[in-house]
Amino acid sequence: MTAQKGKDLLLKVAANDNPSPAFQTIGGLRARSLNLNAASVDITNADSSNAWRELLAGAGVKSASVSGAGVFRDETADATVRQIFFDGIIRQWQIVIPHFGTMEGKFQIASLEYAGEHDGEVSYEIALESAGALTFTAA
């Protein structure tokens, strides 16, 4: 994979909770990250070879965290995200990684922060935590 422009990584939210929802880009993300995690389950015991740690394959909890900062695309995107946050809704999201693929699944907004300078635009920071199984579709 060749180097990619960071600005091309998109964060999209489902406009509704339909089984086949339409997705809208929430805004221009200037900084963003996607973290995939898998906790391990230690099954080391007195019979473990030379006391080396043993792990149980496929038994750990998997999770994903997404964070980003930027400016909202428009008032509609701002209102959608704000309403999802205040209602505590778990909604379908897409993380589009150019020339790599799309990660999709249910996430909850863990934090939403607004900031602004007197001579600049209002910006936001958002953090999402996975709330179920994720799918990955290669580009």
List descriptors.
1 helix; 139 residues; mainly beta; Pnp Oxidase, Chain A; 8-stranded antiparallel sheet
Biggest sheet statistics: 8 strands, antiparallel
Poorly predicted ranges (pLDDT <50, ≥5 residues)?
Answer: none
Distance between the termini: 12 Å
Helix content: under 10%
Order of SSEs: EEEEHEEEE
Overall 3D geometry? elongated
> How would you state the average pLDDT, rounded?
87
Brief overview, please?
The protein has one helix spanning 75-87, and strands at 10-14, 23-25, 27-38, 62-72, 90-97, 101-116, 122-130, 135-138. The protein is mainly beta and 139 residues long.
Structure explained in plain terms:
The chain has 139 residues and is mainly beta. It has one domain: Pnp Oxidase, Chain A (Roll). 9% of the residues lie in helices and 49% in strands. The protein has one helix and eight strands, in the order ββββαββββ. It has one helix spanning 75-87; strands at residues 10-14, 23-25, 27-38, 62-72, 90-97, 101-116, 122-130, 135-138. Strands 1, 2, 3, 4, 5, 6, 7 and 8 form an eight-stranded antiparallel β-sheet that branches. β1 and β2 (23-25) form a beta hairpin. The protein is elongated, with a radius of gyration of 19 Å. The N and C termini lie close together (12 Å). The relative contact order is 0.23.
